[in-house]
Amino acid sequence: MIALSVLLIGHSADVGWLFGDRDGKIRSRAIGVFVVGFWLLDVGNNATQSPCRALLADLTGKDHRRTRVANAYFSLFMALGNVLGYASGSYSGWFTLLPFTVTKACSVNCANLKSVFLIDIVLLAITTYISVSSAKEVPLTSDSGVAHSAEGPEQEPFLWELFGAVRYLPWPIWTILIVVALTWVGWFPFIQFDTDWMGREIYRGDPNNGQNYHSGVRMGAFGLMLNSIILGVTSVSMEKLCRKWGSGLVWGVSSLIMTFCFIGMLIIAFIASNIEYSSKGLPPNGIIIASLVVFAVLGAPLSVTYSLPYAMISSKIEPLGLGQGLAMGIMNLAIVIPQMLVSLGSGPIDQLFGGGNSPAFAVAAIASFLSGLVAIIGLPRPSTTRTRERTRDRR
């Protein structure tokens, strides 16, 4: 599904041209193909990550420390993939390797994207084969102590099981899900508009006119590569941070870092809109460096987002006996529902305030601040801290 989706996204302009997109700036058929491809990509990514998370939790058993370490390494390898992906996005010469990607409907910038996606499909096929052939799963049988009936799955579909399990969740799990939802309300505006913000508000580019916008997008991709490097470095140290400060405090502090970074983006955009640019229309180096620093720093809280919530929900759900697959499904609801709200609301809000990305980042700053507040206050502190406090009280 991921391979199909990137094919549709990369070739959306060509498919739109084939079905009649000729005149006008708005290529409605290409947009339709792109939307379908993007939707399939989102479904494919969710369908891939949730079983991976559940498998990690199953393999680490009831050892919460190993669960945290496993999810930290999951975050590390996501960072490695992101570094390669964003590095490829910051390079503008991919079309020279596959010159046939340049067509009447697809310019050089479009051909670069298409070429990267074609290379990605080859890498995806190789890595998927390695993963599937290496993972040795033990299927559930009567020996595992779980009773199965032939009519069980038909009587209780997983979707209804997912929603039905929600009413059995204790308050600590609800707290984690609330923090997850608020955290992702903070992340989605950045994920949607990061490179667009760089191209539109920092480089003052027009997506349909000139090269400034595309130069900004490539610089944004370079910033996201730096972001992924910091993400990977933070992932390696995640277990030590959690043992020292506690998962809740680490998560809360990371959300507050997000808040300061989003506020920083608002300040940088405001300064950029009120200063003189060079004769070529390019922003001063100080503005570019400040933007890249914000992109890079956001890698640290992103590492927390990719690892800690999954480890915490796994450890909390295990005593309830609901299963790790179901736990990841519930977690996914806390991510997907905010994603839908942000996706539907960010465009109209931005247009209401003049078409810039600043309103969405303001919402992101507020949501991440609330998530940090709830995490620090609502999530339990580590047992080691409680033990030390009891020892002091006895003394």
Fold topology:
Blueprint: H1 2-10, H2 12-18, H3 28-60, H4 64-89, H5 108-134, H6 152-155, H7 158-166, H8 171-202, H9 212-236, H10 238-245, H11 247-272, H12 285-297, H13 299-317, H14 324-352, H15 358-378, H16 383-394
Helix pairs in contact: 1-3, 1-5, 2-3, 3-4, 3-14, 4-9, 4-13, 8-9, 8-11, 8-13, 8-14, 8-15, 9-12, 9-13, 10-11, 11-12, 11-13, 11-15, 13-14
Membrane topology: Multi-pass membrane protein
GO molecular function: sucrose:proton symporter activity
Protein name: Major facilitator superfamily (MFS) profile domain-containing protein
In short:
The protein is about 75% helix and about 0% strand. With about 400 residues, it is mostly helical. The chain has a domain of about 210 residues: MFS general substrate transporter like domains (Growth Hormone, Chain: A, Up-down Bundle), CATH 1.20.1250.
Describe the structure in your own words.
There is one protein chain. This protein is an all-alpha fold and 395 residues long. It has a domain at 171-378: MFS general substrate transporter like domains (Growth Hormone, Chain: A), CATH 1.20.1250. Helices cover 76% and strands 0% of the residues. It contains 16 helices and no strands. The longest helix has 33 residues, at 28-60. The model is unreliable at 142-157 and 384-393 (pLDDT under 50). It comes from Asparagus officinalis (Garden asparagus). It is a multi-pass membrane protein. GO terms for molecular function: sucrose:proton symporter activity. InterPro entries: MFS_trans_sf, Suc_symporter_pln. Pathway: Glycan biosynthesis; sucrose metabolism.
